[in-house]
Each structure stands twice: as structure tokens, then as C-alpha cells.
Amino acid sequence: MFDCWTEASQFLIKTTSALFEVQMQCEENYRMQVTDNIKDYIMQNIGGDLSLVAIANRTNYNPSYISRLFKRLEHINLSEYIVKARLAKAKELLLNGNMNINEVAAEIGFDSPQYFATVFRKHVGLSPNQYRLDHLT
After folding, report:
1. What stretches in the chain show pLDDT beneath 70?
2. Could you confirm whether domain 81-136 is CATH 1.10.10.60?
């Protein structure tokens, strides 16, 4: 098949490189699937316990693994992602629902409406009520 050992070794080197590339791509696809599973879980359980341990238990991954992986692939800490997801849902509920601020806070997993308002104001720049008033008119 080959005229000399040099050709054979070059063929093996190219083949090995191609196999490693395929393996690395498969691993990267798997990692992306893990983060997609985590994001799906967060969106489906936005009002529930979204602690790192709870997410790890529900998705069958090690907590430190998912924390590092999520940060590396999404370029945001998992806890920051959760806050942003909750606030996005809060904005939706504030504008589309007939819920009061206390109900919105409970719906997205905040035990305290006051803490919800503090977090909302910190990230959005407005109180939840002011956000509703500014965007509904």
C-alpha cells in the first residue's frame, strides 16, 4: 500500500490527528450538551431550588464540574446565569401577568419580596413596580 516507511508513518500521523480531532469535537459537543441540559433545568424550575447542589443532583453531574464547565463555556458564573434567568422571567411576569410584586417574587424563587426588589433594582436599575409602569405605558 505504501512505497516506503515514511509514507506509512505520515499516513498514520495524519490518521491519528484526524481521530484526535474527532474525539475532541465529540467531547466539546458533550460539554455543550451538559450546559444545555443545565440551562433547560433552570428554565423548567425557575421558581424552585436552583442551588448548585440541587442542579447537580437533578442533572447527575458533579457540582464542581458543572460550575467550572458552565463558566468556561458560557462565560458567566452559574449563579449569575440563574439570577439573569430569574429576572428575565420576572420582567415577563411583570409585563404580561396580573401578578403583584409579591407573587412575581414567589413565582421566580425569591422567598422575600424585599430581597427580590433589591436584586431587581441592582440589575435592572428600576424597582419592579417602576419597571412595570415604564414598560406598560
Report:
1. 137
2. yes
